[in-house]
Design brief:
The chain has 234 residues and is an alpha/beta fold. 30% of the residues lie in helices and 27% in strands.
């Protein structure tokens, strides 16, 4: 056991999908995994391990923001021997040609500023595992999943006093979406020599003021979950 995960060694597969929301972790496990078993309930951060196309895959909720994310990612990589982390999260679109409810594949990340997590150099440029990124693009095309690939920005502040104006600079640099954890994912995986990929579903649109309703959130994640699992099972 680790301070925040009650699972024992061997309870997690080498590839772990990382939604933020425990309810999404439960929904993904029950919807997509064969014979899922709960391996973590501590603090309500649900974790599951099962099979997808005969390959062991785990799903672990991480909570919101860099600080919470790093606790779970660090313990999975350092204590549980996980080799690949795939974020299955949400994001806000920054440009009009990225559609609401579509999937964004983060090809690189820019962080907003040194709010937390500096210990792993999280505010330096970072990116995904190239093979995983290429595979995600390939599988998305094969499955007919609407997606965009590009630079994303990570912010550790949700309710920011500067409002949407804070995204003018990253948008000018080509950022297509914003989330709260991808910078942490890419940098901590680089630190541990693990593979990383961030897949994000667009739940609100900063450029157009559109947003999804929370009631549709689980069904909304079907494409992202399918794509993540296809990549995990390759």
């Amino acid at each position: 056991m680790t301070p925040h995960i009650e699972a024992g060694r061997g309870d997690y597969a080498e590839t772990v999908l990382l939604p933020g929301d425990p309810e999404r972790a439960l929904w993904m496990a029950e919807t997509f995994l064969e014979a899922p078993r709960c391996v973590n309930r501590r603090r309500g951060a649900l974790g599951f391990t099962g099979l997808f196309r005969g390959k062991p895959v785990s799903i672990q909720a991480t909570g919101i923001g860099v600080s919470s994310f790093l606790i779970y990612a660090h313990e999975l990589l350092d204590y549980h021997g996980v080799k690949t982390l795939i974020r299955t999260g949400t994001c806000g679109a920054l440009v009009e040609n990225v559609a609401l409810r579509s999937v964004v594949i983060s090809s690189a990340v820019q962080a907003e500023g040194p709010i937390s997590g500096q210990v792993f150099g999280l505010y330096q440029p970072a990116g995904p595992d190239r093979a995983l990124h290429a595979l995600a693009l390939q599988r998305a095309a094969e499955l007919g999943i609407a997606c965009s690939a590009g630079l994303t920005v990570s912010s550790d502040i949700f309710h920011h006093p500067a409002g949407r104006a804070r995204f003018d600079e990253p948008r000018a640099r080509g950022a297509v979406a914003v989330d709260m954890e991808t910078s942490a994912l890419y940098r901590i995986c680089a630190h541990f020599g693990a593979r990383a990929l961030s897949l994000l579903t667009v739940v609100d649109h900063i450029a157009t003021d559109e947003q999804t309703d929370y009631s549709e959130r689980q069904a909304l994640f079907t494409d992202m979950a399918r794509l993540a699992l296809e990549v995990a099972a390759d």
